[in-house]
Specification:
The chain has about 650 residues and is α/β, with parallel strands linked by helices. Helices cover about 45% and strands about 15% of the residues. The longest helix is centred in the first third of the chain and has 20 residues, at about 120-140. The structure holds thiamine diphosphate and magnesium ion.
């Protein structure tokens, strides 16, 4: 029997509805509705090799509508990836199965991005497409020449982040980015027209995109639209008119198929409608072989690419970058040595710019940027040219006022590989980036977030711009390393740590205001320990002062006054909670001993500092919104001065 398009697509439909049924949980509607589009894509257009899922020049496919995860699990299985196995699919949504509820990049090769929060996948894909163009400009067509495909639903396009992503992609003319829109006119609550009357394609066109529509169940028409998308130099969106849950005779076209098992009877009826006369999880041999053969096609292109790579003059450098390894012996030691020789009083945002001067010279893979605060975030170094539609080789992205879009695109760059993204905004606007910061942490990728103006120390812009709860709220994100360096040396150390960490994101909170250089030695990277004794008590130690960032300077003054009164005080600088928590207990106990009065000083919420000072400790901070005024006056206003703190410490000791 010759295997037809319908046979191929129905294999996806059957696996999807059966897996959801077995799990009694999941989303059959999208995979069944988009099975035809996905079949055309994977059988005719997508460049991939299941035997080499990390092949650097593969097309990227991002399932932005992550709830339809069974679509990608079916495709990866059918085309011959080692995982998921049929057993994995049988265990869809069970603990330990790589077939998680929503696709997770670290669970399965072939899942390029973790998706589920709607809109994020598409915005992430924009970053992948930027990385592709950049690396193409650097290494040439022979090594880098691929597309980024996205499957997005109505929800992905309705989310606010879509506006940012589409604007950025259109501006940068990312012509190899193609979005396949599951235009099924259904969301969870019912018909799309309950909540939206937007002209989606009109909006994309206005943003510089190419748009085309097709019948999402007619393979020839789908192919026509994909050809048009490939031929057009602009980024493309293909509106694929589909029926959600296609094949389930009584439920298709309704939101009932979106996120619930079809039910035994409807699954049986769908088998009849689809002509799929096989038990659950059984793919007939000829259909299985046909899919596997399609999966093998990419081996030829992969092989040719390998040959081009073998004879390429930049093979070693390309491979280094593709694997994410830093150049041998990368370190900022020499640069830090210069800092010790010439102490200086600078804002840590400026210190970051200085560190980046060294970093960007040593690491050609960094791509910086800012959400329209370049001069404030100090993210651009002198030699960085902008990355533009006319010059993708540039290494600095003007993201515009698109914080969320920036952070998501950075994640896409990190996931793509070959580049290390960093990008800046004000710490207070980390709220605008937060879902992408969280996804960076979940995805275990090296995105580096540069957040300046990190406290009331920014002064006159007032409470809308003064972060209070932000640092603490970022510390609670698992697998995110947060840093709040106290001076120019710590800032360099934190940059080194962020860059050397390949399995997760880092965030640097930096000051607007100048800070004295407190560190006088740098035999080792002390920030790596998260917290360390910056000044040891001279008199008998009665108190340990723990501070981060700009408040370390205040802690040093407090210690001086306490020592003058005969009270010994350690000053502990604590740039990173997550790093400190990872230290051995003996070290932590030594730095923050339990039997001594402990005091925290940080110009932000005090909630959380109990962790280190105990409930008997003192916590100096700000538990209200900030205020507008010059920075120095604000520190006085909020009681964050040595003069205000010392008497309270003395009182607590007596
Ligand atoms: C940011 C975010 N908000 C809400 C949800 C919950 N949710 C999952 S799918 C969905 C909408 C479904 O509509 P659509 O994207 O058209 O998918 P379809 O039902 O067509 O498969 C919602 C609200 C989510 N996953 N992410
Ligand atoms: Mg929909």
């Amino acid at each position: 029997m010759t295997v037809s398009h319908n046979d191929l697509a129905n294999a996806i439909r059957a696996l999807s509805m059966d897996a959801v049924e077995a799990a009694n949980s999941g989303h059959p509607g999208m995979p069944m509705g988009m099975a035809d589009v996905a079949t055309v894509l994977f059988s005719r257009y997508l460049k991939f090799d299941p035997a080499a899922p990390k092949w650097a020049d593969r097309d990227r496919f991002v399932l932005s509508a992550g709830h339809g995860s069974m679509l990608i699990y079916s495709l990866l299985h059918l085309t011959g990836y080692a995982r998921p196995t049929i057993e994995d699919i049988r265990n869809f949504r069970q603990v330990g199965s790589p077939c998680a509820g929503h696709p997770e990049n670290f669970e399965l090769a072939g899942v390029e991005a973790t998706t589920g929060p709607l809109g994020s996948g598409l915005a992430t894909a924009v970053g992948m497409a930027i990385a592709e163009r950049h690396l193409n400009a650097v290494f040439g067509d022979a090594l880098v020449d691929h597309k980024t495909w996205v499957l997005a639903g109505d929800g992905c396009l309705m989310e606010g982040i879509n506006h940012e992503a589409v604007g950025l992609a259109g501006h940068l003319k990312l012509g190899r980015l193609i979005v396949l829109w599951d235009d099924n006119r259904i969301t969870i609550d019912g018909a799309v027209d309950l909540s939206s009357s937007e002209n989606v394609l009109g909006r994309y066109e206005a943003s510089g995109w190419h748009t085309v529509s097709c019948d999402g169940h007619d393979p020839a028409d789908i192919a026509r639209a994909m050809e048009a998308a490939l031929a057009d130099p602009r980024p493309s969106i293909v509106a694929c008119r589909t029926l959600i849950g296609k094949g389930a005779p009584n439920k298709q076209g309704t939101s009932a198929t979106h996120g619930s098992p079809l039910g035994k009877d409807e699954v049986a009826a769908a088998r009849v409608t689809l002509g799929w006369d096989y038990p659950p999880f059984e793919i007939p041999g000829d259909i299985r072989s046909a899919w596997l053969d399609l999966g093998k096609k990419g081996a030829i292109a992969h092989d040719e690419w390998q040959q081009r790579l073998s004879s390429h003059s930049e093979k070693a450098e390309f491979e280094r970058r593709a694997t994410g390894a830093l150049p041998d012996g990368f370190s900022l030691k020499d640069y830090i040595g210069e800092l010790l020789a010439n102490p200086q009083k600078v804002a840590t945002r400026k210190a970051s710019e200085l560190a980046l001067g060294a970093v960007n010279a040593l690491l050609p893979e960094t791509i910086g940027g800012s959400a329209d605060l370049t001069g404030s975030n100090n993210t651009k170094t002198k030699d960085q040219r902008p990355l533009t539609a006319d010059d993708y080789a540039g290494r600095y992205v003007y993201y515009g006022i698109r914080e969320f879009g920036m952070a998501a695109a950075m994640n896409g760059m990190a996931l793509h590989g070959g580049v290390i993204p960093y990008g800046g905004t004000f710490l207070v606007f980390s709220d605008y980036c937060r879902p992408a910061i969280r996804l960076a942490a979940l995805q275990r990728i090296r995105s580096i977030f540069v957040m300046t103006h990190d406290s009331i120390g920014l002064g006159e812009d007032g409470p809308t711009h003064q972060p209070i709860e932000h640092m603490m709220s970022l510390r609670v994100i698992p697998n995110l390393d947060t840093y709040r360096p106290a001076d120019v040396v710590e800032t360099a150390e934190c940059w080194e740590l962020a860059l050397k960490r390949a399995d997760g994101p880092s965030l640097l909170a930096l000051t607007r205001q100048n800070l004295p250089q407190l560190r006088t030695t740098a035999d080792e990277n002390l920030s790596a320990k998260g917290a360390y004794r910056l000044r040891a008590a001279a008199a008998e130690r009665k108190v340990v002062l723990i501070a981060s960032g700009s408040e370390v300077e205040i802690a040093v003054k407090v210690a001086q006054q306490l020592e003058a009164a005969g009270v010994g005080a350690d000053v502990v600088s604590m740039p990173s909670w997550s790093r400190f928590d990872a230290q051995p207990a003996a070290y932590r106990d030594d730095v923050m001993p339990h039997h001594v009065l402990r005091v925290s000083i940080e110009a932000g919420t005090t909630i959380g500092w109990e962790r280190y000072v105990g409930i008997a400790g003192l916590r100096f901070g700000i538990d209200s919104f900030g205020a507008s005024g010059p920075a120095e006056k604000l520190y006085e206003h909020f009681g964050l001065t040595a003069e205000k703190i010392v008497p309270q410490v003395l009182a607590a000791l007596n």
